[in-house]
Write a structure and sequence with these properties.
9 helices, 7 strands
Length: about 200
């Protein structure tokens, strides 16, 4: 995970908290948060090789699908969950968000914005987008529910979720005046801290 991205997420993680990272990859983020914020972290990862890398880093992990595995955490009461670039890979993102906020007080969600101008341009020319945030061709992608910033914010509203903080990032993982002004068109990535109302 990019260091800029780690710093953004780190800002929203309190010291000494219990953190669940959904789609944790190789455990890089949890390792960083363990070192910088003294978190008690746990990961869920579907890819067995990445789950093994978590174990090599001393990060507790369960190798399973988020859609199915989240039910196993009902009694564990996490302070905060992280879903970095995973929501678009889920079968039922709306149900997953509700389930996550049953086991965690807050959740950080990051997602690539499918309405970014570069995606729109690719679609205008008749091709599925391949971008920095959507780096693989359509036939290799794990993304099954791509959405836009506007779509995600509407989903939060429909689920009666409160967006505590949000950032609209450009391709360099930086917030700018332009991404704030026209996020659905100019932001490549949305980053949200959410909770139940």
């Amino acid at each position: 995970m990019k260091s800029d991205f780690k710093r953004i997420i780190e800002k929203w993680i309190p010291q000494n908290t219990k953190v669940l990272d959904l789609g944790c990859g190789d455990g890089d983020l949890l390792e960083h948060l363990k070192d910088s914020k003294n978190v008690n972290g746990f990961g869920i990862e579907i890819d067995i090789s990445k789950a093994n890398e978590c174990l090599r880093r001393n990060i507790p992990v369960m190798q399973c699908d988020i859609d199915e595995g989240i039910k196993d955490f009902d009694d564990l009461d996490f302070d905060i969950a992280i879903m970095a670039n995973s929501i678009q890979c889920l079968k039922n993102p709306n149900l997953a968000l509700q389930n996550i906020l049953n086991i965690s007080n807050k959740c950080i969600v990051t997602l690539p914005n499918f309405a970014h101008w570069s995606c729109r341009l690719d679609l205008f020319f008749g091709k599925m987008p391949v971008t920095k945030n959507l780096p693989v061709p359509w036939y290799e992608t794990k993304n099954i529910h791509l959405c836009t910033i506007k779509d995600f914010e509407e989903l939060c509203n429909n689920l009666d979720l409160h967006v505590i903080e949000k950032l609209y990032l450009n391709n360099n993982f930086k917030e700018s005046t332009l991404t704030k002004l026209l996020p659905n068109l100019l932001a490549a990535e949305g980053v949200y801290l959410i909770e139940r109302k």
